[in-house]
Automatic annotation (TrEMBL):
InterPro entries the record matches: YjdM, YjdM_C, YjdM_N
UniProt organism field: Halomonas rhizosphaerae
Protein name: Zinc ribbon domain-containing protein YjdM
Domain Protein YjdM N-terminal: 4-32
Family: Belongs to the YjdM family.
Pfam family, one: YjdM
Length: 113
């Protein structure tokens, strides 16, 4: 018997190894070997643009000019944001930025200091 996992999409037992990923011949779904590996604990790990894990209270730097919706303000590259809070959702960082106020950021546009 094969020690490969069943397909997460259709449940087929006929999965095969294709080098760097696993493939289901029935539905065509492809996934990485470690896709089923969950991080320790029940929360997902939020990572910055460089792949470093973020935590509540961290300080981050903005890596791209970000337009602020509903205002003519722009968060400039290099803006340092202190004491972030991680939240669920698309914009996973809740913070206060000097001169702008409270806002939410996506973790893909910041890097850990």
């Amino acid at each position: 018997m094969s020690d490969l996992p069943n397909c997460p999409e259709c449940g087929s037992a006929f999965t095969y190894d294709d080098g760097i990923q696993l493939v289901c011949p029935e539905c065509g779904h492809e996934w990485s070997r470690d896709a089923g590996a969950e991080p320790a604990g029940d929360e997902a790990v939020v990572r910055d643009a460089n792949g470093n894990p973020l935590a509540d209270g961290d300080t981050v730097t903005v890596i791209k000019d970000l337009k602020v919706k509903g205002a003519s303000a722009v968060v400039k590259v290099g803006t340092k944001v202190k004491n972030i809070r991680l939240v669920d959702g698309d914009h996973d960082i809740d913070c206060k930025i000097d001169g702008i106020g409270a806002m939410k950021l996506k973790s893909e546009f910041v890097k850990k200091v």
